[in-house]
Amino acid sequence: QVQLVESGGGLVQPGGSLRLSCAASGRIFSINAMGWYRQAPGKQRELVAAITSGGSPNYADSVKGRFTISRDNAKNTVFLQMNSLKPEDTAVYYCNAEISSWSRLLRDYWGKGTLVTVST
What we know:
It is built from no helices and eleven strands. The chain has strands at residues 2-7, 10-12, 18-26, 28-39, 46-51, 57-59, 67-72, 77-82, 91-101, 106-110, 114-118. Strands 2, 4, 5, 6, 9, 10 and 11 form a seven-stranded mixed beta sheet that branches. Strands 1-3-8-7 form a four-stranded antiparallel beta sheet, with no helix packed on it. Strand 7 and strand 8 (77-82) form a beta hairpin.
C-alpha cells in the first residue's frame, strides 16, 4: 500500500531544463535510498541518479554535471533537476525508493514513470 507518483515530465528543447518530482505515500515507516531510473525505447532500464537517506548522491556518468538529485525527507519526496538536456536523455523516467512499510519489511517500490522528451 505504498505508492510512488512521478511528475514533471514533458517536452523540452535540447539545452533546456526540467525538474522531476516523486512523492511517496501510503503506509510508510521510513525511506532509505531513493533514485531515478530511465528507459529509452529499445534500451535497458538504467540508473540515472540515487541518493541516500543522509543526502549523499550518486550519478551515472552520462548525467554528471547536468543533473542534480535531492530529497525532502519531511515530504517523502525526491527530485531530479535536469539541465542541459540532450536528445539522448529522452526516456521514461522511473522513481525508485527503498521503503520500510508499517510491516517493517524493507523493499523496493517503483513509480509508473513520467515521459521526458528532448526534441526540437
